[in-house]
Design goal:
The protein is about 50% helix and about 15% strand. It is built from eight helices and eight strands. Strands 2-3-1-4-8 form a five-stranded parallel beta sheet, sandwiched between helices. A three-stranded antiparallel beta sheet has the order 6-5-7. A hairpin with a 5-residue loop joins strand 5 and strand 6. The structure holds adenosine monophosphate. The site of adenosine monophosphate (AMP) has 18 residues, from helix 2 and helix 3.
Length: about 210
């Protein structure tokens, strides 16, 4: 089973994809995580990518496709949860072609719907574990000594999770990614799930969509 998550920034894609990865034995492919790894490398490409991410701008479609292909070629999995890809209609078309080449298809596209203020609060409160990828929120989770509950690593904030950067990312989303939602709606592949409230309730609603209930 292959799934796509489309949503505004900080809507909870990463958190839900992490839960689904465990529940359904799928691979959580976060293009944001992939890019942050490159941004941390001491290379020209790393510097370029870091600047784009930090300003809430998108990395160009051809590079994204190349990185995605490289990543998928290393995977041996039941299925993939695409978290953060596609972010443009062009990327959605590229993904269709890639799936066809791989003799695969996308089963469902899940749109996590959330208002801007809720997403802003999730962004400014978010802390992540660079070791195991767990995601927490200082406003909603009980965090002890700023350490990951799962592996004990010190938690860090993303550079792009300030209010100003969030606003840029939200604008980018409205211009480039909102049309992706209409694209999948027209293909009858889109399922909308509210991403307001408790993460377990949201997860249960996503499960209902996946299991066709
Ligand atoms: P995320 O972790 O999904 O919030 O992504 C963080 C940042 O990585 C985004 O704000 C973009 O700058 C970049 N990014 C992630 N996925 C893509 C993509 N599919 N296309 C272009 N840029 C991306």
């Amino acid at each position: 089973m292959n799934l796509i998550f489309v949503a505004p920034p900080a809507a909870g894609k990463g958190t839900q994809a992490e839960m689904l990865e465990k529940g359904y034995n799928l691979y959580h492919l976060s293009t944001g995580d992939l890019l942050r790894e490159i941004a941390n490398s001491d290379t020209e490409l790393g510097k370029e990518v870091k600047e784009l991410i930090d300003n809430g701008n998108l990395i160009n479609d051809d590079l994204m496709l190349k990185l995605l292909k490289e990543k998928i070629s290393t995977l041996n999995t039941n299925g993939i949860i695409f978290d953060g890809f596609p972010r443009t209609v062009n990327q959605a078309e590229m993904l269709n072609e890639l799936m066809e080449e791989l003799n695969q298809n996308i089963d469902k596209v899940i749109y996590l719907e959330v208002d801007k203020l809720t997403a802003l609060k999730r962004a400014t409160g978010r802390v992540t574990c660079s070791n195991c990828g767990s995601i927490y929120n200082i406003y909603f989770d009980n965090i002890v000594d700023n350490k990951c509950d799962n592996c004990g690593q010190i938690l860090t904030k993303r550079n792009d999770d300030t209010e100003e950067k969030f606003n840029n990312r939200f604008d980018t989303y409205m211009v480039n990614t909102k049309p992706v939602i209409d694209y999948y709606k027209n293909l009858n592949m889109l399922y909308t799930v509210s991403s307001i409230g408790n993460k377990n309730d949201i997860y249960n609603n996503i499960k209902k969509v996946i299991e066709g209930k």
